[in-house]
User: Fold these one by one.
Assistant:
Number 1:
Amino acid sequence: MSLTLVVGSKNYSSWSMRAGVALSHCGVPYDEIVIPLDGPDTPQRIADYSRAGRVPVLIDGENPIWDSLAIIEYLAEKFPESQLWPSDPMARAIARSVSAEMHAGFTNLRTELPMNCRRCYEGFRISDLVARDIDRICEIWRETRSRFGQRQNGEFLFGPFGGADAMFAPVASRFVTYGVSTDATVTAYVDALLKSPAVQTWMDAAHTEPTIERYEFEI
Ligand SMILES: N[C@@H](CCC(=O)N[C@@H](CS)C(=O)NCC(=O)O)C(=O)O
């Protein structure tokens, strides 16, 4: 069966990044279709692959899977050797909980700090609502690092790179873009995540894409 991942512009599409990073981590062959997010035909091009009208979409053979977290779950089942979820049931449940929390929440951060992998906005003012999202994200990272990641001698939330890290990769990119400063534990995790091979591959591709003016802003 052939795998095809349909994503939006890599520099701006954070949901695409989550699926793309997870699939790249699996180390299996796949085709990729990148749909620029600003074209007049963007909705139609996306609709060709998903009636939900959103990217990412993973197509396995003839079958589309049209949501980032559902894609990560599918990859974890299809490629168990990739260890996208921890083997311990409680660690796995917590990895899924924090991934679901990311998927369903942090709306203020996602709205006010859009992903832009190749920009660094100096002096960006973080609103109180976004600061609340950032505090909760850092709390998740500190707790999972101390309870699971460090105990496993890994650099990531649950030890080795996994699905929860893929879900938070666009947040790590935003921390750099918007100059979010935190403590040593969080900084070390952000560094490790951004240096991980799957994230690097995504960011390198993002750097070569055309700019979409309406997603850029000056401060
Ligand atoms: N819950 C979905 C959200 C996907 C989503 O909102 N994707 C955006 C791009 S990041 C999209 O497809 N936008 C369509 C458009 O801009 O036309 C997921 O997790 O995959």
Number 2:
Amino acid sequence: MPRFYITTAIDYSNGDPHLGHALEKIGADAIARYRRLCGDDVRFAIGMDENSQTILQPAEEAGLTPTAWVDRIAGIFSDHWDRLHISNDDFIRTTEPRHTRAVTEMIERTRKAGYIYRGTYEGYYCERCEEFKQEKDLANGRCPEHPHREITWTKEDNYFFKLSAFNDSLLKLLDDHPEFVQPDIRRNEILNVLKEGLQDVSMSRHQRGWGIPFPGDTEHVVYVWYDAVINYLSGTGFPADGYRDWWPAELHVIGKGITRFHCIMWPAMLMAAGVELPTTVWAHGYVNWEGRKLSKSSDAPVTLETAEERHGPDALRYFLLREIPWTGDGDFSWKRFDERYNADLANDLGNLANRALAMITKYRAGVVPSGAQTSLDKKALETLAAYRSAMDRYLLREGAAAAMELASAANVFIEEQAPWKLAKDDSLSADLDRVLAGLARTLARLAILLSPFMPEKCAALWQALGCDREPSSLDAYRELDLAANTVHCEAVLFPKADSR
Ligand SMILES: [Zn+2]
């Protein structure tokens, strides 16, 4: 069985989750669920980045110890992921001992290999990004991610990681393996950074009472970014025997703002420590609110709660993945969400299910007849090919679009075949069977294809067709036969939303 280890970036424990966090989890979850449909043995890890110094202030303001604070934030995040049906197998927190163990081992291996030295860091440091910035990275003298904050000039004795030693190896990596950074626009950005030449990076900070102690020097903690990316490895049990059951990862899903850490620093860290590299880092874009980036610092006009409650969690999942290209930025607005909910889910898919199930109930007493193949079966095979081609390349929007085309085709099929006319003439009974059986198969196929996007609704549709549990394999798609299944048509999958 092919294995597939997929991760998302771990989230900062200094505020509540917003739509941007949700987009990443939902997209990665759709990929994980798709790989499971394909028969892969999947491990899907998400988690929290808890060693940041930036948690100290909000913890103090809330009157909590840092530990109590990160516990609380981890609970808030994971509650959202449960509500959104994120099917993660692991929820790693970087304050866990298993993570400290992996970080310590990575640093010891790297030191032994001669890639760590002591030096003095002097330069800009964005406290919010927790990132050392070069003059050329700044916009109007400030961090472009945090334009409302002053950037600080810092000078510290630190441990340094000899990143510059990996410049050529990284260029070669991106040449030999264009799939290492995707989509291509992100790969080109990384290539440009590499062509300018890399500088060594600080990998420690002075101890301020929070963070992973630097191995061999308790006055320092491990620089939070150096520690954070190692979570992907700690999630496999590294360095314990058996970590290779899951490592190297097939896919790291991250946001486009943190590509340098994942596409330059992380592979260099792994090379330095003699650990295998992941296959692909996929950098998605941002969810914008009418063109503006949603971030923790801005008081967003949309919260994750309100977005989840609008039409339910599955509708939000579908909307984000169908509307925001997985390759770049996209816009969120209530108007667009309502329009797409009504057009795609209530009308195209919901109506199709309601009509087909109602006709099977009315004309065949709720039992799916057996019937010959129809033009819809042919369309379903074309759909499968387009869907797989998109999903195999992580093009989630195109995958969802391919599936929804099948729903549209089925609605056209109903109009063309007019089962209500066939039902009036007993001599056309076999034709009616053919139409109803074809519609039942199509609904079941839609439940399979759309289950990575809307797992709860697709399980409900699957069960409404008289099938057990939930759609679990693409293998079932081609030879599907629902004859003799008893359908249930009481459930309305997507009630039409009033315009607000
Ligand atoms: Zn910043």
